[in-house]
Amino acid sequence: SRGRPREERPPLLRKRTLWTKVKHFFNPHTPLSEMMGPADGSGEHKGHTHTHASDEETLKLYDPKNLADEGVKITWVGFGVNCGMAITKFIGGFYFHSQALIADAIHAVGDLISDVLTLSTVRFTHKKADALYPFGYGKIETFGSFMVSFILLYAGFQIGWSSFYEIVAPIIPNALHDLMSLIPIHSHSHGATELMAHDHDHGDSQVANINAAWLALGSIAVKEWLFRVTRKVGERLNSKVLIANAWHHRVDSLTSVVAVATISTGYFLNIYWLDSIGGLIVAMLIMKVGVSGVVQSFKELIDKALPAGDARYTKIEDSINVILMKKDSHVLIRELSILPSGTNLNLVLKLGVSPFDRDYENKLTLEQMGSIGEYLKAELANEFHNIKHVSVQF
């Protein structure tokens, strides 16, 4: 029944819940709030999932001046390890002729670019709004996210098309070969190049070197180590950002799991296109992230307001109601629009009098309205440091 606690649900429901958790776990871009369980019961916040909630805690974790802090130290260790692994995978992918490993490297580079974007814009976007930019500088981060997502989408399409060509090359007619060769896509695999250069001789395609699988396997081991260490430090310091970073380390290793499976299977069965299957799967994951990031950033650039069900909307709305109750209980919210701008928020608020207090509306003076508006702005600024602009109307 609906009233039963979760642990007493029928087995079918328990299995369905478990399956949902498994799908979320193996989806490398499931919002972290859903993986760890939403802290506020909403789980509505979506965005570029590799953005590490650029707030004061994140700023502190990435500040080299705080290296004595173990949270800062493990954050920079993770960042450095990710840089090294991305470079190693790229070199290994080209050297060992592995589409899957190159795709895995592109995925890792996308994460690194997102981190660098966060580091380079977090201080700038936290600048106070001024006369020239009354809504703050948050759109700088939004535009950066849009560009990063677009680059990811293009890179994913490149490696995906190259992998797809490797798979279908032996079975398509020469006329279709010539048509596909007109698409200006740079191939990352010597096998695909040979197919086009040697009059479509399909016997020369290379099986990916098994050493590529060892590189991907090493990446999984390192990511798991980073997950465990970062989570341990995060739990000890009670840091949500560190715990989120830890889960990123674990979930991002999915692409390496795909690479290991397809490279090793293709090598031992002598099926060269299995590596390309792995490259195609990883490329699809990369494109999924790219499309999601482009769409989300575009919506933010054209000032789409937060939905009423968003956790941030609910929290701010509740705070405004509490503030109004303290200042003047006759006044309430008529309309509320919250516009995200990077990590910042801008509010457009319309206040009014309760329908049951129509007489009070005639008693409100302009001075009282101005006082309520200024009080509301000051209280919101104290409670939410990422609110850059509040427009209050009556």
UniProtKB/TrEMBL annotation:
Record key words, sorted: Ion transport, Iron, Iron storage, Iron transport, Membrane, Transmembrane, Transmembrane helix, Transport
Bilayer topology term: Multi-pass membrane protein
**What NCBIfam families does the annotation carry?**
CDF
Which residues lie within the region annotated Disordered? 33-55
InterPro entries named among the record's database cross-references:
Cation_efflux, Cation_efflux_TM, Cation_efflux_TMD_sf, CDF_Transporter
Note whether Zinc occurs among the keywords. Answer: no
Judging by the UniProt lineage, the source's domain of life is Eukaryota
Q: What is the lineage of its organism?
A: Eukaryota, Fungi, Dikarya, Ascomycota, Saccharomycotina
Q: Which residues form the Cation efflux protein transmembrane domain?
A: 76-302
Family per UniProt?
Belongs to the cation diffusion facilitator (CDF) transporter (TC 2.A.4) family. SLC30A subfamily.
Q: Mind listing the GO biological process terms from this record? A: intracellular iron ion homeostasis; iron ion transport
Biased-composition ranges, Basic and acidic residues, are 42-55
Explain the purpose of this protein. Answer: Mitochondrial metal transporter involved in mitochondrial iron accumulation.
Q: Which PANTHER family match?
A: MITOCHONDRIAL METAL TRANSPORTER 1-RELATED (PTHR43840:SF15)
Q: Which residues cross the membrane?
A: 254-274, 280-298
Report what the protein is called: Cation efflux protein transmembrane domain-containing protein
One Pfam entry name: Cation_efflux
Record Gene3D superfamilies: Cation efflux protein transmembrane domain
